[in-house]
Amino acid sequence: MIIDKLYEEVLGNGPVCVGLDTRFEYLPEYLINSTKTLEEKIFEFNRKIIDATYDLVACYKVQIACYEAFGIEGLKAYSRTLKYIREKGKVVIADIKRGDILSTAEMYAKAHFEGDFEADFITVNPYMGLDAISPYFKYLNTGEKGIFVLIRTSNKSSKDFQELKVDNKPLYLKIAENVQKWGESFIGKSGFSLIGGVVGLTFPKEFLEIKNMCGNMFFLIPGYGAQGGTGEDLKEIFKEKMCGVVNSSRGIIKAHKGIDEGLKFNELARKQVIKMKEDILRWQE
Ligand SMILES: O=c1ccn([C@@H]2O[C@H](COP(=O)(O)O)[C@@H](O)[C@H]2O)c(=O)[nH]1
Predict the structure, then answer these.
(1) Angle, nearest 10°, between helix axes 72-87 and 38-53?
(2) Which is the closest atom of ligand 1 to the Cα of 225?
(3) I want to staple 245 with a disulfide (CB 3.0 to 4.6 A). Which of 17, 34, 66, 109 is the partner?
């Protein structure tokens, strides 16, 4: 199952997930000024970052908004980036945060688990309930696809709704309970489910509460670096085992900006990955 492959990657290469939230202003000057098409420029930037990091990381997360913002050219670069990561034998998570009624969710599932935008995992929004999530199960049944459901997001305003009490519990715990239950039919050899949770590293106390409740859940963990999360915040969460992948986007792909612009952006991304890995793993010894 794809979740077992992802967990193997974590065991072999550590839990770093490189976030390809590529923006035009992150490109080095030589690419910005080149005569290549926009699609080529964005793809070349991503390809060089992937080539410089794939032996050190568990997976990649590609944020679709950054590519949609460039229009058709951006989506072509998005499609090529997903394909390139999968050709390299690495796992790719498409951060698309979809959530809609059953008939529409069927089309989102087809769009992102097949064809030009095929990814290994996608992120989904649970706000509309089970029938907005169940259309993805057809793909989970193959064992080759998985989803990460938003549970406790990393942004400050996540408290606006996620902390509201339902049956005397914060909503994020209610969601976690349901996600854990849905995931019980999709557990791999690793003991983790193809239905994982998105929980931000910016709330480590709440994270621990969720983790302790959801034994089979594998986590996609945003919030490291640019949003303030640190390796120390993962100490308790990863105490028994590394139960997730830790995403950093800006902290890795724009490391060269303002420091050493130019051809070395990929080497700087690699250095940032090594630094992040050390920062996480030293708390696990
Ligand atoms: O709760 C969430 C869910 C998703 N994200 C996404 O992760 C990256 C974070 O980027 P950084 O530059 O490392 O801050 C981005 O794609 C977000 O959309 C999140 O931050 N929090």
Answers:
(1) 30
(2) 13
(3) 17
- Domain range spanning residue 206? 2-284
Assign 234 to helix, strand or coil: helix
CATH number of the CATH domain containing 10: 3.20.20.70
Q: How far is the CA of 1 from the centre of ligand 1 (A)?
A: 26
State the DSSP code for 89.
Answer: T
Alpha-carbon gap, residue 44 to 36, rounded angstroms: 10
Find the angle CA(244)-CA(246)-CA(249) to the nearest 5 degrees.
150
Torsion of CA 86, 44, 117, 96, to 10 degrees: 100
Taking only the tens place, the pLDDT of each residue in 196-217 is 999 999 999 999 999 999 999 9
> Is 159's C-beta closer than 6 angstroms to any atom of ligand 1?
no
C-alpha 153 – ligand 1 centre gap (Å): 9
The DSSP call for residue 191 is S
Q: Provide the pLDDT for residue 89.
A: 98
pTM for this predicted structure: 0.97
Q: 21 φ, ψ to 5°?
A: -95, 65
Tell me whether strands 195-199 and 219-221 are parallel, antiparallel or unpaired. parallel
